[in-house]
Amino acid sequence: MSSTSVITASVLYSLLFLISQRNTKSNEYGTGPIVRTAIPKDVRPAGSQFPQNPLAKRKGSTLERKVKFLFGLDRGFSSRSKLMSSTSSSKMAPLVADKHSRYILMAEKKKESFESVVMDHLRMNGAYWGLTTLDLLEKLGSVSEDEVVSWLMTCQHESGGFAGNTGHDPHILYTLSAVQILALFDKLNILDVEKVSTYVAGLQNENGSFSGDMWGEIDTRFSYIAIYCLSILKCLGKINVEKAVDYIMSCKNLDGGFGCTPGGESHAGQIFCCVGALAITGNLHRVDKDVLGWWLCERQKECGGLNGRPEKDPDVCYSWWVLSSLIMIDRVHWIDKAKLVKFILACQDLDNGGISDRPNDAVDIFHTYFGVAGLSLLEYPGVKAIDPAYALPVDVINRIIFTK
Amino acid sequence: MDLDATVPLSERAEWSDVVPLTQNDGPNPVVQIAYKEEFRETMDYFRAIYSSDERSPRALRLTEEALRLNSGNYTVWHFRRLVLEALNQDLYEELKFIERIAQDNSKNYQLWHHRRWVAEKLGPDVAGKELDFTRRVLSLDAKHYHAWSHRQWALRALGGWETELDYCHKLLEADVFNNSAWNQRYYVITRSPSLGGLEAMRESEVSYTVKAILANPENESSWSYLKALYKDDTKSCISDPSVSSVCLSVLSRTDCFHRFALSTLLDLLCEGLRPTNEHRDSVKALATEEADTNLANLVCTILGRVDPIRANYWAWRKTKITVAM
């Protein structure tokens, strides 16, 4: 369970939606036009109000300029045009773990970077992605723990909540990332648990849902975050767990999936959050595992990658959210794992390190984390085991569960 | 519009009394950042007014500049709300501001939450505006998750259900594969106060969905929707001739995507549908395998072949077949 990824997910979702809906003009493998099963024109029944033109229906969204705005960069549609050869070679390439570690460490230190600046307010999430990836690749020791922890503590507010960076307001998203980072470094003991848990518990609403902060945005992501956070701090009793679970169940759709609020479209990210929360609270029996399992395994496209909703493009980060959900409900054997491994590996930048959303796109820390985490769930050699519900290395979670 | 907008803040007379606060990354910053100059300066001035809690008109304008540079910065949105309240600003103007920001980048939670906060304060009067706003966003990206989420909230909180089903239809005419539009359709028929609920709408919706399926049998959403129309009522599902016959129609076509028709037929068989000879014949025509006397078994075998990426799933489905046919 990647509660961290949930938290970061909220920010990530901004990126995620942008990135996942990128108009790549490429098929699922990153080359060539998207081709749907061809249907002969004479098959259309008379009087149909639904014009039949499969290719015309395959519209992507025009997010390229939005992504450019967010990062102030050209996001790689043109910049990686050595693509064809790198795609075919990267299909065969193994995980270039050292390059990914170096990419993350460099990103942390990069002087330039409008990207860094734009992500300033969510540095706590970025730190979680980067540090967890490093730990999965056994490179956490390359980072100065003291520097990270002392910066992290400057982000805590009077209320007990943590902000995305120094000088920002507290939010449940960054509070969880902070707790997760401390867990990675085995430094949870420096926390005033009472303070943090009171902040988180205070965000529960009458109907069991959780707000992100004092401004009241409600989303099942926050349910997951709150439950995760309090479970790690061993004070789940501070919230009304039954109501929290009931609210999550009210967001269950007939396809077995979950949305952000009741009636919201099933989405892999939200599903991960809800299933994760149900897993942590011992309520997985309330999931329609067979129905949801089928919806989740339907996310796998021919190229092996997974999308987040029907008719969307595959994306490495969805691979995490779908995969971890499948594992939590014991249905991961319903996808083709080998093909998914190949897809993730094909999303690597073999020269500079880092992983992108799909082959031949520009890399970023978010997708690097999800790619490596996904490979961990797929038991790729050389990557530490990650807990599918807590999205932290299994040894970190075990350390927490087996102490006190 | 601030005429000084392109002039650095440090050179604007209006800001001459303010000492900008630089980003304090701590004594040994984990990340040293060389900020783009305009961004850096704007945020330095923002930090100054944020820390002195200045809730003035110029503070409001500054938050606008900061949000134009980075609409993801949630602290700026928070502070803007405090300033809006303190100044008792015209929130109708704020709706326009939000839309201007959305034109550059509408994919962030903060913007949508801010919009909701404003709309909530303005109340049912702005129901139309919220539906119009989301419609404009959806016209650029018909699957925009935030926009749909906001639209659902607006319908619940402010009203405007009357034209929603028609709106869904227009979106589906443009792209019948739009899963969000199908989801919204379901939302409307189950929650609209003026439609009578799922059972009342079932017949017309089944008819609508069948047409969509026949036009594009490879559309996962329409098949999913068809099943959802029979929520918790499998008996009605298997006894509705429309459902079994749409499977048959699709399966009888050559050169057609059969997978969803096959899996839907499988579901019906497992729920107790008695297959007709036509069902059997159409399935056998698709089989390259030896004919199985158990039709459901045969369907699973075919599915395992035509959908190899999910071979394990279809093998598991086979083990679940208990009906003798």
From TrEMBL, chain A:
It comes from the Eukaryota. It is an enzyme of class 2 (transferase). Its cofactor is Zn(2+). InterPro entries: PGGT1B-like, Prenyltrans, Ptb1, Terpenoid_cyclase/PrenylTrfase. Keywords: Metal-binding, Prenyltransferase, Repeat, Signal, Transferase, Zinc. Its EC number is 2.5.1.60. Binds 1 zinc ion per subunit. SUPFAM superfamilies: Terpenoid cyclases/Protein prenyltransferases. It catalyses: geranylgeranyl diphosphate + L-cysteinyl-[protein] = S-geranylgeranyl-L-cysteinyl-[protein] + diphosphate. GO terms for molecular function: metal ion binding; Rab geranylgeranyltransferase activity. Residues 1-26 form the signal peptide. Heterotrimer composed of the alpha subunit RGTA, the beta subunit RGTB and REP; within this trimer, RGTA and RGTB form the catalytic component, while REP mediates peptide substrate binding. Catalyzes the transfer of a geranylgeranyl moiety from geranylgeranyl diphosphate to both cysteines of proteins with the C-terminal sequence -XXCC, -XCXC and -CCXX. This is Geranylgeranyl transferase type-2 subunit beta. It comes from Microthlaspi erraticum.
UniProtKB/TrEMBL annotation, chain B:
It holds the Pfam family PPTA. Its cofactor is Mg(2+). Keywords: Magnesium, Prenyltransferase, Repeat, Transferase. It comes from the Eukaryota. InterPro entries: Prenyl_trans_a. GO terms for cellular component: CAAX-protein geranylgeranyltransferase complex; protein farnesyltransferase complex. It is an enzyme of class 2 (transferase). GO terms for molecular function: CAAX-protein geranylgeranyltransferase activity; protein farnesyltransferase activity. It catalyses: L-cysteinyl-[protein] + (2E,6E)-farnesyl diphosphate = S-(2E,6E)-farnesyl-L-cysteinyl-[protein] + diphosphate; geranylgeranyl diphosphate + L-cysteinyl-[protein] = S-geranylgeranyl-L-cysteinyl-[protein] + diphosphate. The keyword 4Fe-4S does not apply. PANTHER family: PROTEIN FARNESYLTRANSFERASE ALPHA SUBUNIT/RAB GERANYLGERANYL TRANSFERASE ALPHA SUBUNIT (PTHR11129), PROTEIN FARNESYLTRANSFERASE_GERANYLGERANYLTRANSFERASE TYPE-1 SUBUNIT ALPHA (PTHR11129:SF1). Belongs to the protein prenyltransferase subunit alpha family. This is Protein farnesyltransferase/geranylgeranyltransferase type-1 subunit alpha.
